[in-house]
Amino acid sequence: MTQAVEPAEYDVVVIGAGPVGENVADRARAAGLSAAIVESELIGGECSYWACMPSKALLRPVVARADARRVPGLAGAVQGPLDTAAVLAHRDTYASHWKDDGQAAWLEGVGVDIHRGHGRLTGPKAVTVTAPDGTERRLTARHAVAVCTGSRAVVPDLPGIDGARPWTSREATSAKEVPRRLVVVGGGVVGVEMATVWGALGAEITMLVRGKGLLPRMEPFAGELVAEALTDAEADIRTGVSVTSVQRSAPDGPVTVALDNGEQIEADEILFATGRAPRTDDLGLETVGLEPGSWFTVDDSCQVEGVPWLYAVGDVNHRALLTHQGKYQARIAGAAIAARAQGVPNLETGRWGAHAATADHAAVPQVVFTDPEAASVGLTLAEAEQAGHRVRAVDYDLASVAGSGLYADGYRGRARMIVDLDREILLGVTFVGPGIGELLHSATVAVAGEVPLDRLWHAVPAYPTISEIWLRLLETYRDGGS
């Protein structure tokens, strides 16, 4: 028999305690509102334990070794294999050993009440939390409920998939041993990053990509340069192929992967990095007139269409499935919730307003932490042309910049900026090359700030750094090159 406990009322109730939910609750508290957060797993969410933090902790020694091997006088000192045990231990530390005490203490420290269990909407502004012991508690929100439950990896419904025990991003970032042979299905960010990690730790990598190349959401040269590096590292990349079935005949045996071209591949593990779905299946959306299992449709303040007290923030609204964008949305949504609760008559919901997540449309940054790194913000050339802008792509070889040669011998990389010819501002920038991840924020400022090119000309890059690429791109544009 389910036991109910005393109900509680708050100004704001947040479902999901990942980075997005934490930020919504924190912004509500900072504005003087009371807030509660509901979480069924670990406080800190996917990013902290199975995505951003563990994956980047795994990638850092891989990339650092690759960089060191390209530096004269240092290369000979780093020729041995990586210390796998130390790399995995480093990963475990950054995943907090899959314990959330620190994150829980932070939330409690800012005055947010934590309710552990599964949260479901049970009507307007009402959330029922079922705790692990089966007890239920009804939470009521005076002003807003924010759904911040994120997304989950999608595993295709293939013959044999249930018994094959495939990896998703969770298993790939938390595995305790290096598989001898790993098949990676998918050529997006998760696929290339995990191929980079486990290949460097000794696994034989086979990548199976349905499309024409890697990183299809970036400029084509990004995927090409990353593919070259993975191939140099002895990964077998096969494009234009699909998996038709998988089979693992014994619990500890190999997995056999059948392809649509008739081939079969045998591996020890198979990772499906083939997309994400919203975690909205069992949230009680039907009780407020919404479709369970679907992405939310929201405005720029992350308010759900047709349900003014409900907000959907982060992955669940499908605007930009990136932790930093979700946290950005959380700051916007938190400010909007507080303003509406305080009766502010006119919210700043126009372009670049305090209550509008404009960057989701115009200036989303992303870094892919492979070797080489790939980083982009804003629109690609194809996206800009499809949107009807009159644009020009300006390209430059990053290896020709003085700072890149000092960074590494044999540096390979490329940069592109997309110029709006009518307004003479940047719509997008892409960098590919070692060490360019930290260069991306300068591009993000230029795109989000809509900095005129004649003003950007006066932002002088320090010599000799890789950031001199800005001068070279602007010179190329001024001189009529492409």
Automatic annotation (TrEMBL):
One of its GO terms (molecular function) is oxidoreductase activity. Keywords: FAD, Flavoprotein, NAD, Oxidoreductase. Residues 364-470 form the Pyridine nucleotide-disulphide oxidoreductase dimerisation domain. The keyword NAD applies. Its cofactor is FAD. InterPro entries: Class-I_Pyr_Nuc-Dis_Oxidored, FAD/NAD-bd_sf, FAD/NAD-binding_dom, FAD/NAD-linked_Rdtase_dimer_sf, Pyr_nuc-diS_OxRdtase, Pyr_nucl-diS_OxRdtase_dimer. Residues 10-327 form the FAD/NAD(P)-binding domain. The keyword NAD applies. Its EC number is 1.-.-.-. It is an enzyme of class 1 (oxidoreductase). Belongs to the class-I pyridine nucleotide-disulfide oxidoreductase family. This is NAD(P)/FAD-dependent oxidoreductase. It comes from Streptomyces poriferorum.
